[in-house]
Structures are given as structure tokens and as C-alpha cells.
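User: Modeling request: complex.
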Amino acid sequence: MFIFKDDKFLMGQRKNAHGDGSWSVPGGHLEFGESFEETAIREVKEETNLDITNVRFGAVTNDFFEKEGKHYVTVWMLSDYNSGEVKIVEPDKFVKMEWRGFDSLPQPLFLPWNQLLKSEFIQAIKHNVTNSHG
Amino acid sequence: MPQPRIGVNVFVRKNGKILMGKRTGGTGEGQWCLPGGKLEFNERLKDCALREVFEESGIRLEAVEFVNLNNDPRGHEHWVHVNYQADTSSDPQLTEPERFTAWDWFSLDELPEPVFFGHKKLIEAYRCRKIISD
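Assistant: Request completed. Predicted assembly structure:
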């Protein structure tokens, strides 16, 4: 979930799960019976305390975690910040959270970012960041 | 709770028409659908698209282009469809007669009846050029 605000988006440093120590945007599993938008709003609230608006499609990537033997299809959604103060609601999952841009990506990045950054969707996402009104 | 499953489908185009097959031997008996199938563990999305089209129709595509994403929770089943398109000059063969009784080309304005219930939403999204249907 990209949450756009003032030409930046919120990134968190992961803890415990696969990709421990790496950076990504908030997100989680699509639950059985859930819509993409419902997942997006729920996960962002659960992880960051923020309320988002204007949820829309960003990208789809295919991510294989060799070491863990996990295969994910990641749906990347875009949204605009609506209200709330950033809070690390689940400190067992995230060490810290910061507003970043594509010119200031933290390292190391979570594995699915490798696919995202070389995907056909990345230009449109970058365009969205600079045109968001969140 | 079971997990949502990933389906990959392809709009194979020739002379302004798309390829559809008449299903047999399973869900949606007698209904017309796009070529496609279930993403296998550790398979790339586009490789899945190329593989399914070849297995089901004998058509070898060189490359596919992303068109849309469809989320389809429907009670006892929940599918996420990732859909692609490609042009071809080849004609289909009945390579899996236990699964398809016919292949034919159809204009989006004159689709065969009945269209497979699992593909209705994503075909409608394709007609309307909607990148996401949820």
C-alpha cells in the first residue's frame, strides 16, 4: 500500500517475518472474501493508524522467496493520506516508519521491490507520487 | 480459512477478435471462457500465461502484456485473476479435448452464450478498459 502525502509515501522497516530489517510500504494478506480496497484500508489502519482515501491500482508483481520457499503474488495499491498520526501499532512487525520518496529510498529494500522497480508499472507509480494531493 | 487462489488468463487477439474455448469436464460445463489457468508454485505470471495458452490451444505466444486485475470473492471460492493480452497469427487446436470441446474467435460485441461465470467480470472490465475490478 502506497500512502501518498506531500510527494512522499510511508515506508516501514520490517521485523521478525521474512525480510527482517528490510524496508517496504505497509501491507498484508488479502483475506478470503475480501476486496482489494478493504484489505488496503484494514492493513494500513492496523499497521500505521492512518486513514486513507482514493484507493487505486498500482502494480502486480510475482515474488518468490527462495530461502523461505514462499511464493507471493503482490498487488500494490495506491492511496492518498486522509487523516491520523503515524503510529507503529504493531511494534513486533515494524521497527520504524518514515515518509520517503523514490529519490530517497531506504536500504535494504524488501525483496518484492526488486520486481516492482523493474516492472512496467513503476513509471505510472512515480507519476502518481508527484501528482497526489494527499 | 482457505487462501485466495491466483488465476492467469489471456486475451489472445486475432483480426480484432478474442479467443474463447467451450469448457467441459469440470466447473462451468458448456460455458465459454478465455484460455488460462492456475499459477503454479514458483512460476512467473507471464510464463504461466504463455504455458496455459499453449497447453490449452496449441498457440505459441512470444510475449504478453498486462491488461487488468480482477478480484473475485464468491462465497466458497475466492480467485484473484491477473489478465494479459497478446496478438497472434496462429489458429487454435483442441489439444485438451477432455477440457475443451471448441475454440473460436469472437468480437467483444458478440460474445458466445453462455460466458463462463468466473470470467464475466474480467471480460467486462476489459471491454471498459478498467485496470482493476474488485
